Amino acid sequence: MLKADVVETVAKEAHLTKKAAREAVDSTLENIIGALRKGEKVVLSGFGTFVIRGRKARAGRNPKTGQTIQLPSMNTIGFIASKGIKKTVRK
């Protein structure tokens, strides 16, 4: 499912124009990104939780040359699905 599909579905189910639905979806995603940028976790009840996870610096390899390189520490985004979503997908 693409973002355009989500916008179309929101427009139909919420009885909105596609423009209004696109603005709602964009605003929601921007707010999630903004909270993650601040280091906050985002909890969407019944859906899941977005969290920031730290990754330690480590040695890696350049796949082209095989040379060992040092990869810096960085933050990554993690998602923990809710129990309800997990149950639905497993069936």
TrEMBL record:
The UniProt record lists the keyword Repeat: no
GO MF, any single term: structural constituent of chromatin
InterPro entries given in the database record: Hist_DNA-bd (IPR000119), Histone-like_DNA-bd_CS (IPR020816), IHF-like_DNA-bd_dom_sf (IPR010992)
Pfam families recorded: Bac_DNA_binding
CDD domains (alphabetical): HU
Protein family according to the UniProt entry: Belongs to the bacterial histone-like protein family.
Protein name: DNA-binding protein
Species of origin: Candidatus Woykebacteria bacterium RBG_13_40_15
